[in-house]
Design the sequence.
């Protein structure tokens, strides 16, 4: 799995590289110090995943994510954020970023997030998901109860199977993982995911995951854990 890292702080890049190096299946193929360089290096190296800091000089992470999704759509984007950047997370959702991680989170989350996005899933660390939902509740869009009620109303329009699929999207599962969990073929899951996105009126899996968290839809544990 080929990964690009972009952050304007050399120490952060070194830390991210060191964490990813603990997984022998991940290879860091390039590093960038700003968003503009990140886009150029993604074009040159075509990595599976680009890990982008939100705040970078010249071109910030959100602008870089949007350009990467336009220029090299096969490259998944994981955003690295800090507490207090909730509005940036919401903007990045609209730019096609599929993973959101807090820099102060556990190292295992970084590896899990990169692997999930490489597999075509959305990954919201629990801390990010909680902060996104809380931030949405305080931005003038209504109280948290109102946000939850609106999300539940949107989810009510889904079929039972689509709600199952949405719950697993909220859990960060890829199509293949959902297929195995629900005993379906992957093509069927892909069709359900497309239908869920269309019915919810969202553009990507990460945005659907936010709706799942707002609605309180949690994936059931694997059969062996029940």
Sequence:
């Amino acid at each position: 799995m080929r990964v690009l890292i972009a952050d304007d702080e050399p120490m952060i890049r070194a830390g991210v590289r060191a964490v990813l190096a603990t997984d022998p299946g991940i290879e860091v193929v390039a590093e960038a110090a700003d968003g503009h360089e990140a886009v150029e290096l993604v074009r040159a190296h075509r990595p599976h995943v680009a890990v982008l800091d939100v705040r970078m000089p010249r071109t910030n992470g959100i602008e870089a994510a949007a350009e990467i999704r336009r220029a090299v759509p096969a490259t998944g984007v994981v955003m690295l954020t800090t507490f207090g950047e909730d509005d940036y997370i919401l903007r990045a959702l609209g730019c096609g970023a599929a993973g959101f991680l807090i820099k102060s989170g556990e190292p295992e989350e970084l590896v899990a997030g990169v692997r999930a996005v490489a597999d075509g899933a959305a990954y919201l660390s629990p801390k990010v998901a909680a902060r996104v939902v809380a931030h949405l509740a305080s931005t003038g869009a209504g109280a948290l109860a109102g946000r939850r009620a609106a999300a539940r109303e949107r989810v009510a329009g889904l079929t039972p199977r689509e709600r199952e699929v949405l719950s697993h999207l909220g859990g960060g599962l890829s199509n293949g993982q959902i297929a195995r969990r629900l005993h379906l073929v992957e093509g069927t899951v892909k069709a359900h995911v497309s239908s869920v996105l269309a019915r919810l009126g969202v553009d990507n899996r990460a945005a659907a995951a936010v709706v799942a968290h707002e609605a309180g839809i949690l994936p059931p544990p694997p059969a062996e854990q029940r």
